[in-house]
Amino acid sequence: MLLSGILVKLSRLIKGKMKLKERVALGTFLMLLVIYVFLLTKNRKKESKFTVWEAKIVHEDSLDKFQQEPKAELKVEAAVFPKQQQKDSKEEFISNEINRLRLEFKDVQIDDVKNPFKVAASWVNERQIYPSEHPEMSAILKTMSTAKIIHADALPKGTQIKLLLSLEGGQKVVFKQKRYERDYVITGKPYDGYDRHNAEIAAFHLDRILDFRRAPLVVGRTINLRLEIMPVATERLLKTFREENGNICYFGICLYCKEKEMACADGDIMEGAVVLWLPDEWSVFQKQRHPYQRTYVDGRYAQWEKDETYCNRVVKKTVPYDRGSRLLDVTDGTVFDYLIGNADRHHYETFKDHGSDVMIIMMDNAKSFGNPFHHESSILAPLRQCCILRNSTCVRMKQLQNGVLTLLLEEVMSNDPIAPILHPSHLNAIDIRLTILLETVEKCIKEHSKEKVLLEKWDGI
Asked: Is 357 considered catalytic here?
């Protein structure tokens, strides 16, 4: 009715039949209408500048306000932040992260094999192995996967077959060979089976996406054992080589290495992962028992497996977990290990003689991605019992939920020389586990409050 009345008056105005008072009233109305439209447009422009899906980590409080406040307030938020805008912001976050993490092996030119490794050595400090922004990563990983092998030896340390290789320029790398196809499922105990070379690669890229930066650099590589290894191998390694059904095999030297459990190439070609050896200053480690170590004995349970108060009663009162960064590193490690399905973190390493604030190094991740259909709840014990986590880690997990994490992981692994790295079932498992992790954190917050659970500094109890 109002619109039809306005149209009638406009018609009369055009025909010159409108009275003076009517002209003034109509002019005032139209002027107010123009001002209202102008102010509405201006406010919308201001609001469009804000996004909860920024490329950098946003403050957790603002993210919580958007995601968790009561329904009545969420309706207001929805009016301010339309669904399309949320979608655009999420896509912007994904695009920015892909640009940060992308590897361009094909376009990288390596003039001097020493230079990339010098860059990698310069990155390491007490709290990182590489920086958040690392455009040189492509050159380093490509050099690791292509540089000439000048020396090969067995690496006796540990329970699994590994080779220690020296590349042209003097850089050392550890080679972990292929033992399983990508779709092979490890059944039994969560720590059973041989090392998985592709698990090392996937874990490294997950470390990059989480922005922990605590895992040594890893890349896939195929090696001709007959031409690249045997001519430069030490005598002790060469003695473990055999030929079986036309395939070159070896069993190496380690605690459990046996001739009947050889690793065999496809003919002469062995697929594997190479892990960058840290520079001399940072390659001496302090090895410590994990506070949530397993017994590895059937029917015998560790204290933490029998007592849910174990963290508050024991761990939080024990050096170095009673204050500082170490316990927060442990719960960060819980997030990392649960996502990759690693239930074998019985010990951990830190940099020796580099102060008390050194990080836990997320190395030796090859017992991961064994069974995508099992989500080992015991891995969650440190987070579930201690109920503390870095605020930044929680924010990061929220940014990566709803399939964002696996989308990024699949993208950044796609350029590896031996891609695809993970079977799709493992990517699906990661999405499921991330949801469970966030539910675990939410349960802690409900029981203890956000201020006591999400921290950046642990001052003790």
From this structure: no
